[in-house]
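Margin note from the TA: students keep mixing up input and output lines. Inputs are the sequences; the output is the structure of the whole complex. Example:
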Amino acid sequence: MSQAQLRVTMGEAEWAIADDERELVERAKSDRAAFAALYRRHYRALSSHVLRRTGDVHTTEDLVSDVFLTVLRTLPRYRYRGVPFRFWLLRIATNAVNRWARRQRRRVLATVPIVGLEVTAAPASTDGGVDKERAHRALLSLPPKYQAVLSLHYLEGLALSEVATVIGCRVGTVKSRLARAREALGAALSRRR
Amino acid sequence: MPRELDPADRALQSLRGQQWSGDPFNIELEKRLMQAYEAHRPAARMGRYRVVVPVLAILVIAGVAFAAAGGVALVKNWFVTTKINGEVVDTREVVPNEDGSARFSVPVGPPHEGTQVVEMSIEGDGSDAGGTKTVTITSDGDSAEVEIKPEQAKPEE
């Protein structure tokens, strides 16, 4: 994705924030305080993203720790190439959660309760809607690569091209994967009625 | 009439509003990160180079000094190549005796077997002097004895 395309997708205000963040990221490579600021800036959003995938607070804390330790280790190699830092963070987090999901998928489906979630301005599940617990279990039953595209596109609100940037594939692949993921989610929900 | 959401849409919509309800950041994790930062920061990485670079420099200098002091020729002379009439018939490591002499046997297969070997060239003689020696050996069997004698100092006139 080119910088111009990204600028259109993100909007001017968000682009300015990205510029500011770019400076912070560069400083964080050699300045401890800047790294702490970067950590504080992204902790909550990253935790929300991971929690939507895992459904478990403790697992989320562990995974977010791993993600930030990976960020710390790999930050010196990070080069700004027109892609916001947030996407880079989401890529590391997505990879970490996918690894966890592959290991834990069956166990999680059977046992883990959905805790620590707070609904903010979300439409309530009424008139035959899907309750969160059931929705979450259905999401967790999907292959990790399907969970990733659904989560990034529908839950994080990323455009298709941004999802492609995060997971490192082509837009066409994201589109077809999303279609299959939605189909699989529908099937999982109908099995769990 | 608004389009009715399918079950997948409704499920995703119900998950969309969920947010992290814990602390805005984890102070314990921040402490851990700051400790880890010390180990990963550029100065710490430079510290590793400060050890590796001198060791490499010493190794390079030692290598150059060894080569300059004739080390390459010395090592080369541990390996003796025997040629009969220009054809390599044997290559081996020879450790010379204290007086600089060495003795070993080389196979003399076809086409030299049973023939008179008119010239045997030995490259690397196990001595510090190095160089090539040519000796004449007569062989009537399937092997030839090679004896290297140390150079005798010529009496001064």
